[in-house]
Amino acid sequence: MKNLVEYMGLEPGRLQFSWISSAESTKFVTVVNQVTEAIQALGPNQRFVKKEAKVA
Amino acid sequence: MVQYTEKIREIAERLLKDCVVEVVIGFRSGTVPMMNEPFFARTPEDAAQLVWDSNCGINLANYLTDRKEKIAVVAKGCDSRNIVTHILENKIKREQLTIIGVPCLGMVDKRKIAESVNGEVLAVTEDGDQIKVRASGGEKVFNKADMLQENCAICIHRNPVIHDELVADPVEEQKDVDRYADIRKIEEMPAEEKWAYFDDLFKECIRCYACKNACPLCYCPTCFVDESKPQWLGKSQDPLDIRTFHFLRAYHCAGRCTDCGACQRACPVGINMRLLTKKLEKDCKELYDWEAGMTLDSRPPLDFYRPDDPEEFIK
Predict the structure, then answer these.
(1) Same structural domain for residues B187 and B216?
(2) Given this model, what pLDDT does residue A1 score?
(3) For residues B92 and B84, what is the distance between their CA atoms, to the nearest angstrom?
(4) What's the rounded Cα separation, in Å, for the pair B219 and B83?
(5) How distant is the Cα of B226 from the closest Cα of chain A, in angstroms?
């Protein structure tokens, strides 16, 4: 899925997946920090955002 | 092709006469050239209407979903792979089916032919590798190889994967075919360019859903596009809604699509949505070494967990 979304033009790194157990608090913190950092670097999302519905 | 037609009629007539099956699903000539239509032969006399030529691009596996009777079905390479997928997904039982396998030499692209002649196409006949087209603006003869549908030109499984009868000896499979040249070209584009590329690709889409109706994989009683609780995607002509539709439709075909080309063939505006399904096919080949519909003995990658499934995408 990630492959196809990026194939269609979403910036690499915008879509991220992780699996964190409820017991893995440190992993949770690390991943959240990494994701936030990566997304902030990419800036606000422009893709898959509908600004105004096109009316026929 | 004449031999194919005769053999199909002969087999169909025999099966119907001996009451081995209740219906034979095949093709008969359509009302306009290059548009053979699916045909359900129910009596031995009906069998005489069955035909075979290079305009049988519709995927007949589409007509098997959830049927209860005994059926014989005419199947080229891609159809047979979709039948395998149907059996794996419990949409039909193998015991119900008598598969009349057709070693396929590819289907012609009706748009390409219509564009290559002057005026309206009035009649199309075949003689071996030659396609003779009579149009209102004169007659023309083409090499069949130049007029194949894109997916047929790069097909590597022309012979039926499963069959009970075979109408001719298996044909030679195409070797050294580069199936993914166009996909790699898109993969190499920067994100910005990719986005623009697909915007342009889908700009003609009128959301008629012919692609999903022609597809043998799309058999849900209610399609996600029609659901309103929850509403998965907008129903408008907004480019984003169109894109989301194509994205989701393609993804539902991941690991199942056999690149039969029915979607592209059915599209009234000629969108090549196979660029999406083929990308998924390429990924499935690379990640899982999987080709859809090649065997009844293993489950498709996306409905089965294996401990060695690739998981690089997940943190």
Answers:
(1) yes
(2) 67
(3) 9
(4) 13
(5) 18
Residue B168 and residue B27 in one domain? yes
Half-sphere exposure (Cβ direction) of B39: Cα atoms closer than 13 Å: 22
- Tokens (6 digits) for A45: 């999302």
Measure CB to CB from residue A3 to each of B237, B241, B283 and give the nearest one. B283
pLDDT digit string, tens, across residues B192-216: 999 999 999 999 999 999 999 999 9
Chain A residues near residue B315 by CB distance under 8 angstroms:
16-19, 31, 34
Q: Which of A17, A53, A55 sits opposite B313 (nearest CB)?
A: A17
Reported pTM: 0.90
**Domain with B130 in it:** 108-147
pLDDT of residue B303: 84
Kindly tell me the burial class for residue B153, based on how many C-beta atoms sit within 10 Å of its own C-beta (0-12, 13-18, 19 or more).
Answer: middle
Residue B212 and residue B119 in one domain: no
Prior bond of B230 cis (ω within 30°): yes
Same-domain status, B36 and B130? no
> Looking at the predicted structure, is the pLDDT value of residue A55 above 80?
no
* Residue for token pair 């999406």: B276
Same domain, B24 and B48: yes
Mutate to test the interface with A, among B201, B207, B238, B284 (most CBs of A within 10 A): B238
The sign of the dihedral angle between the CA atoms of B178, B181, B183, B187 is positive
- Which of B187, B240, B244 is the closest to A7 by Cβ? B187
> B140-157 pLDDT, tens per residue?
999 999 999 999 999 999
- Whether B40 and B81 map to the same domain: the answer is yes
Is any Cβ of chain A less than 8 angstroms from the Cβ of B195?
yes
Give me the number of domains chain B comprises.
3
Token pair in block for residue A19: 């699996």
Best of B186, B187, B189, B194 to disrupt the A interface (most A CBs within 10 Å) is B194
B314/B193 same-domain check: yes
Residues of chain A with C-beta less than 8 angstroms from the C-beta of B238 = 50, 53-54
Question: How far apart are the CA of A45 and the nearest CA of chain B, in angstroms?
Answer: 13
Does one domain contain both B8 and B46? yes
Q: Point out the residue among B192, B279, B314 whose CB comes nearest to the CB of A19.
A: B314
